[in-house]
Design goal:
CATH topology of the largest domain: Rossmann fold
CATH class of the largest domain: Alpha Beta
Mean pLDDT: 84
Number of helices: 19
Largest sheet: 5 strands, parallel
Number of strands: 14
Structural class: alpha/beta
Radius of gyration: 31 Å
Strand order of the largest sheet: 2-1-3-4-5
Low-confidence stretches: 134-138, 396-404
């Protein structure tokens, strides 16, 4: 199915909003839209097997004694369902998500919001369903759910994703910042039978401690000042799907205990609630910290650590898989060249060699940011070493010393040596020799010494050097 053949089926009994939403979808998403008013018409179209996303309006009659969304989820599981839910009706929202809906659209319609939610569903359909059909060959040539690499280390990661995707066990992804831990978590979800349910990421380090609990567990109306409505948390929103806890090492001990209960009992209690709520969620955690060291230091619960690390998965830093750098460069150039008239043409062999020998402390994220910068600054050109920022350029070979000076010329006697005096004398000799080699041209002398011209002039003046 090509992108232009993506089909959205809209079932809405009211003609005016049906035609308005269908028109907006066709105009803004460039998809094929079938707009009908009854469940029977919808089922006929679904039987053809080409529908990607189904939007189900309010007040539809039952189909074979079932609400339409339940019938579709049972008989057409590949279709992503978007029921229309009354704005603010938390209970119905939770019910449709638990039943297997991909997301929901609020009623009365906010057409802009409806288009955004539908576009998101179509993107998700393309990313998961289409890639799944293309098979393992894609992973070697174009990337595995967005993860790029052919190195032995990454092939091992891909094999682990294959093996772990449909397991219920928790997974702990470890690795330096920027290595792609969230991409691996998304791949585990996308490659699993949970892929049509929600993948819910939350960064434990980015949310203040006093807010993280309510974000995770949700709260009941009246649980605290300002809790005017009941709100579901990330755990409940991930019911049937996957909860990704990034930077789990930053979670405070009181929340660690509550998370442990979710893993052990498959239940949680919202803030202000009394009864435990059952939940079917797979938990994937990630951290750049050494959690064993955090356990030893008393900052992380030992029992939670062992629950999380049932299946540990460690991502290699980019410096250990430098053979993947050309693949990553090609992919990022392709991404950032989109919609640009002046496109980056690539990298010279010398620049590529330089980038492959750089240590990449920021890993893949740093490489991505570099490519974006180069595309903006040098669109239409091929990147050579001179276009690379200084820290990515190869180390310049050390200047051959113009002086007959070695450490054997320095004598350190029993009483020691005046370090500053020796360095002062060496600076004098270096400056005079550089000026001699450049026939007194201070700009060229500064270049030979890798100094700014103004710095060289200041040194000459301060030292009172006789340049005659």
């Amino acid at each position: 199915m090509t992108e232009k053949m993506r089909i959205v089926l809209l079932v809405e009994p009211s003609a005016a909003p049906r035609e308005e939403l269908a028109g907006r979808l066709r105009k803004e998403i460039d998809c094929v839209v079938h707009a009908v008013g009854s469940p029977g018409e919808a089922v006929e179209i679904l039987a053809e097997g080409a529908v990607c996303v189904l939007i189900i309006g309010r007040d539809l009659p039952l189909y074979k004694s079932l609400p339409l969304h339940q019938f579709v989820l049972c008989h057409h599981s590949q279709v992503l369902v978007l029921p229309v839910v009354p704005l603010g009706d938390q209970e119905e929202m939770v019910q449709v998500l638990r039943a297997g809906a991909f997301s929901y659209i609020n009623a009365p319609y906010n057409f802009t919001e409806a288009v955004i939610v539908t576009a998101r569903a179509l993107y998700f359909y393309d990313l998961l369903i289409h890639q799944e059909k293309r098979g393992a060959k894609v992973r070697k040539s174009e990337g595995f759910y967005g993860i790029i690499g052919k190195s032995p280390q990454m092939e091992e990661i891909f094999d682990l994703i294959d093996k772990l995707a449909n397991d219920i066990s928790t997974v702990l992804i470890q690795g330096e910042s920027g290595t792609g831990k969230e991409l691996v978590a998304r791949a585990l979800h996308a490659h699993s039978h949970r892929r049509l349910k929600n993948f819910v990421p939350i960064n434990c380090a980015a949310i203040p401690e006093d807010l993280l609990e309510s974000e995770l567990f949700g709260y009941r109306k009246g649980a605290f000042t300002g809790a005017l409505l009941t709100k579901i948390g990330h755990i409940q929103y991930a019911d049937g799907g996957t909860l990704f806890l990034d930077e789990i090492g930053d979670m405070q001990p009181n929340l660690q205990a509550k998370l442990l209960r979710v893993i052990q009992d498959r239940t949680f209690v919202p803030v202000g609630g009394l009864e435990p709520v059952p939940v079917d969620v797979r938990i994937i955690a990630a951290t750049h910290c050494d959690l064993e060291a955090e356990v030893a230091a008393g900052r992380f619960r030992e029992d939670l650590y062992y629950r999380l690390s049932v299946i540990p998965l460690t991502l290699p830093p980019l410096r250990e898989r430098q053979g993947d750098i050309p693949l990553l460069l090609d992919k990022f150039v392709q991404i950032f060249n989109r919609n640009r008239t002046a496109r980056l043409q690539g990298f010279t062999p010398e620049a590529l060699t330089s980038l492959r020998t750089y240590l990449w402390p920021g890993n893949v994220r740093e490489l991505e940011n570099l490519v974006q910068r180069l595309v903006v600054l040098y669109g239409g050109r091929t990147i050579g070493v001179s276009e690379l920022p200084a820290k990515y350029a190869p180390s310049r070979p050390a200047l051959a010393s113009p002086l007959d000076f070695t450490l054997t010329d320095v004598h350190i006697g029993p009483d020691g040596i005046d370090f500053d005096a020796v360095i002062h004398e060496l600076e004098d000799k270096l400056i005079l020799k550089a000026l001699q080699l450049t026939s007194g041209n201070k700009k060229d002398a500064a270049r030979l010494l890798h100094l700014n011209r103004t710095t060289l002039l200041e040194k000459i003046k301060k030292k009172g050097l006789n340049l005659k």
